[in-house]
Amino acid sequence: MDDIQDLTDGLRSVAIDADCVKIIETPQQFYEILIKLTRGAKERVILSTLYLGNGTLERKLVNELEEALIRCPELRMNILIDYLRGTREGEKSSAAILKRLTPRAAVYLFHTPHLRGLLKRFLPERTNEIVGLQHMKLYIFDDNVLISGANLSDSYFTCRQDRYVLIEGSRQLADFFERLVDAVSSCSYILKSDGSMEIDPRCEVHPYREKLCDYAALIRARVLNVLDSLPSAKPFSVDGTSDSDTRVYPLVQMGMFSVNQENDFLTQLFSSQDNSSTLTLTSGYFNFIDDYGCLISKTGKYAMNILFASPQANGFYNGSGLSGYVPSLYVVVSELFFRTMRSEVRMFEYTRPGWTYHAKGLWIESSKSPLSATLVGSSNYGYRSVHRDLEAQLLIVTSNEHLKNRLKSEHSRLMEWSSIVEASTFLRPDHAVPRWVRLFARYIRNFF
């Protein structure tokens, strides 16, 4: 990256004012903002998430959504969740909780086309989710877009740290993301008020009963049509002649449908030979695809800090059955990377008593550029994010000093709960890994 501006060449964007970018700090604030925006919505509420939980806070949110529909007869409400995750747990499932909003609201469930045939017949609940998921986290209220990695579930409202960025008053961006959600929804199941489901009438090819290539071509064409709807790329002006000091660039990753905006961007970023740049990357799950890991550890010349969940802050910590060994898998992966990384790369673990860590994204700074950037959204930069799941991110690039400082403060706050990873870290008892996990890690890491 000779300059941050070079990274945006050819990308479509929306110009916004830096003051319209609100950085939300805590899970509690995230929940409060969701309630506030729901109560204020008059035109549309568009929600895209992996699933909705079934606790008290989630049910209160659904109550607010229902009241919004009553209060505003013209309100348009569309909700997109994942089929596999959203139908788990029967009467406690997301679908069961959301059905009361239908038909006034449209609730869609995306079913990965790769779960078909014998896989669909024999893979049990929960395990079948490794095949692929709808993972985009987009919360749109009128012309306000809240993008995050957080799901709509109790822990994400209380003690599971994530990132949350609210873009206020951008109709162009809200329209874009609504069209993106609708493109996926049009190729999904639709929930009926009795709890049953049927394929949306707009879906001309069944996701798993008809040919995979035909379904993939259908949804890819619809998604690409949305991506092409943004204005053609314009050079980012840093000399004060532009009408905006901040631009946002949506990046969509749907590798199963050959949509690879995020992958293309990150490959360029991680290949950078610019030693004046500093990257800070965070993910709740440290599990780069091999291409990213090789570029970061061997090819790039930039300085880089990587922040990820410690075993205790991993959402699978103390899980039942095999899921309880997932934190050990990530220890193996992080140790392998640690052994190969160059000296300009440092690794940090997030540990906060009573909390888990789910934040994801990037911050980009360069001493040669007046710009700073951040990438925020749903991706974890692993094999699943690149090849199996549906992901949406937002690249925010700004020359505004106040916003640049706020972005720096955001990652500094997250780093406050971190400790640097050293060789001795992997010798501690809390990083002990069962031998069988080490043996199978290389074969199963791409499913997590």
Quickly list its features.
nucleotide-binding; Endonuclease, Chain A; globular; single chain; 10-stranded mixed sheet; 448 residues; alpha+beta; 9-stranded mixed sheet
Would you mind describing this structure in some detail?
The protein has 448 residues and is of the alpha+beta class. The protein has 2 domains: 4-10 and 245-447, Endonuclease Chain A (Endonuclease, Chain A, 2-Layer Sandwich); 19-227, Endonuclease, Chain A (2-Layer Sandwich), CATH 3.30.870.10. It is built from 15 helices and 21 strands. The chain has helices at residues 4-7, 27-40, 56-71, 83-86, 94-98, 117-122, 154-158, 171-185, 212-227, 261-270, 290-299, 326-340, 383-388, 401-415, 435-444, and strands at 14-16, 21-24, 44-48, 76-82, 106-110, 138-141, 144-148, 160-161, 164-167, 189-191, 197-199, 246-254, 259-260, 277-283, 303-309, 345-350, 356-357, 361-366, 372-377, 391-398, 418-420. Strands 1, 12, 13, 14, 15, 16, 18, 19, 20 and 21 form a 10-stranded mixed sheet that branches. The mean pLDDT is 95.
Quick gist of this model?
The chain has 448 residues and is an alpha+beta fold.
The parts where pLDDT drops under 50 for at least 5 residues are none
List the domain count as a whole number: 2
Helix content: 25-40%
Tell me the major beta sheet: 10 strands, mixed
Look at the helices and sheets and give the structural class: alpha+beta
Q: What is the averaged pLDDT score?
A: 95
EC number: 2.7.8.5
Domain PLD phosphodiesterase: 130-156
Pathway: Phospholipid metabolism; phosphatidylglycerol biosynthesis; phosphatidylglycerol from CDP-diacylglycerol: step 1/2
Subcellular location: Mitochondrion
